[in-house]
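Please discuss these two lines.
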Amino acid sequence: MPITRQKKNDDWDVTPIGADEPTQVVPSKNKTGLTHVLRYFRDVTTSTNMTLNAPVNGPALMKVFKEMLSKSVTTDQIYRMIDLFAEDIKRTPLTNQEVPWLAFVRRRGGLFKRITSDILPVDSEQVKFDPRLEKYLHD
């Protein structure tokens, strides 16, 4: 539903001469959705990286997300790629020189292959060790 914005008329409720016609503003659904994806990325990587205010180049990352959407990657897949990336950097932290958003951009091809492959990721908490090997794990 478009939003109609009108300029304020004068006190006599008459449109002044030369006033603009009412315009309709249609909010862009794509930009709003990408903004949520960007915020989600920032929240997930900041909590994972334990770095407050981790630098995220919003316009550049939005451009990458838009490019991914144009190549028929769904927003749900992008969210899963972000989650997978967060798990990866939780297990193996980034170096001090690596910025999370750039690391995500570099790894996006591999992340996409991982979420679209038939092999399901293994949750490390579900792995059970052979009781005979337990004594070697605690040394």
Summary: The mean pLDDT is 76. The radius of gyration is 24 Å. Residues 28-117 form one domain. The longest helix spans residues 29-49.
